[in-house]
Design goal:
alpha+beta, 5-stranded mixed beta sheet
């Protein structure tokens, strides 16, 4: 299935600390999470081990909200959370 990453998603990705490669990885390999308004969502935890906004974080969790139109996955937005989670993989 083709993945179309919308410009809004790219803007949010830059602001929140992720990129197109991670977004596609989440869609392809992430775990399903709840989403509103009939949309779909997946999440994946990535190693981070860096500082963000002056604070150190071990991991980041990237959540991608998307919809499927025909044979295309169309992103809506992306969220990034920093912290320490147990991986579900």
């Amino acid at each position: 299935m083709k993945i179309l990453i919308e410009p809004h998603t790219i803007e949010r990705a830059k602001e929140r600390g992720t990129n197109e490669v991670e977004i596609k990885d989440v869609i392809d390999n992430g775990f399903v999470i709840d989403a509103k308004y009939g949309r779909l969502a997946k999440s994946k935890i990535f190693p981070f081990n860096r500082k963000r906004c002056g604070k150190s974080y071990k991991q980041k969790r990237v959540e991608v909200i998307f919809a499927i139109h025909g044979d295309t996955i169309l992103t809506v937005t992306v969220y990034v959370f920093y912290g320490n989670w147990e991986s579900t993989e």
